[in-house]
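ok, trying the design again with the full structure, not the truncated one.
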């Protein structure tokens, strides 16, 4: 597997439309004509600097009030900033920030491994496979049977404790996300075995630096009891934030039939994705992932351009008669949880 940044190129072809030609090419041409695939380096420099300054302010606050239980008030703030950090690493992985692979990888290592303890190489490989075949039960690692399952066929194989999890997975989804921050760290260290010698050395060094730095920060700014509670609260809220950002995107949407008709790029990305309506606050909270359809169609499109591309994408889909799913944030959670509840229904009937 690749050891450097691997971003998916913008596809240039799609399935033949009834009139002949590609369904995706006219949209790609229009998007390029508007300059929406051009990078916004200045915007990202400002975003990275502001995030770094905010992180520095929180660290300063921890040092100043770490002796008081009031320091716990900074844990939710740090969790939100860590989610912003993850969004920056995500954008670097898609070459949205710069076309220089080495610079993109460095940004990813700093924002993923060093600041979050999450392996950038592990995530980038997994995420690119998801983008290539979203919601494909045999090819998308995000819908592979694990703690959660996403199809009745997957659910039918569950028994014992895993069966109990599947029966109640809709109710357990958000509580389980509280463990996501820790799970990401564990997955990163486990993935070191897959990586090549040099990649393993670099990734491992950044991960170890994160663990050492995080422990040092906690233990030098507050008593042990405060540190334990702060770490638990921070990691739980960080995982919850990420879960709330990623849950609305694909869960409950179309899942391609491995034995059915092959979808081209346009339909493969649009039919499996869900956009979230909202304001600038929604954009901030979800890191631009609320424009999931546009992001999947054009993974290297800079985050601030996604909202500009949305009207063009929506109009193009309407012209082809392709459903463009868009809903509110709360309703997106309802749809995702309903899908997980229905998947577990057969196991509840058997009780």
């Amino acid at each position: 597997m690749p050891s450097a940044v691997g971003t998916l190129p913008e596809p240039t072809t799609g399935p033949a439309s009834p009139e002949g030609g590609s369904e995706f090419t006219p949209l790609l041409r229009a998007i390029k004509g508007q300059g929406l695939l051009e990078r916004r380096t200045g915007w990202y420099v400002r975003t990275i600097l502001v995030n770094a300054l905010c992180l520095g302010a929180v660290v300063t606050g921890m040092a100043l009030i770490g002796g008081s239980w009031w320091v716990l008030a900074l844990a939710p703030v740090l969790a939100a900033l860590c989610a912003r950090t993850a969004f920056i690493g995500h954008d670097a992985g898609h070459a949205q920030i710069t076309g220089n692979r080495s610079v993109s990888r460095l940004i990813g290592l700093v924002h993923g491994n060093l600041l979050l303890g999450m392996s950038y190489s592990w995530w980038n490989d997994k995420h690119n496979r998801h983008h290539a075949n979203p919601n494909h039960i045999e090819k998308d690692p995000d819908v592979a049977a694990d703690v959660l399952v996403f199809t009745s066929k997957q659910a039918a194989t569950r028994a014992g404790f895993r069966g109990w999890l599947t029966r109640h997975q809709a109710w357990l989804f958000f509580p389980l996300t509280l463990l996501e921050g820790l799970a990401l760290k564990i997955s990163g260290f486990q993935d070191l075995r897959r990586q090549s010698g040099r990649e393993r050395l670099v990734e491992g060094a950044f991960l170890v630096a994160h663990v050492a730095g995080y422990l040092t920060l906690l233990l030098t700014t507050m008593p042990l009891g405060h540190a334990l509670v702060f770490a638990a609260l921070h990691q739980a809220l960080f995982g919850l934030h990420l879960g709330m950002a990623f849950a609305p995107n694909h869960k409950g949407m179309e899942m391609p039939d491995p034995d059915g008709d092959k979808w081209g790029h346009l339909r493969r990305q649009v039919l499996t994705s869900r956009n979230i309506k909202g304001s600038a606050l929604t954009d901030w909270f979800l890191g631009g992932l609320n424009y999931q359809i546009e992001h999947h169609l054009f993974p290297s499109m800079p985050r601030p351009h996604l909202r500009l591309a949305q009207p063009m994408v929506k109009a193009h889909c309407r012209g082809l008669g392709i459903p463009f799913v868009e809903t509110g944030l709360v309703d997106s959670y309802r749809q995702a949880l309903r899908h997980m509840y229905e998947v577990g229904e057969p196991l509840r009937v058997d009780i």
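Keeping the full-length input from now on. Residues 1-9, 12-20 have pLDDT under 50 and may be disordered.
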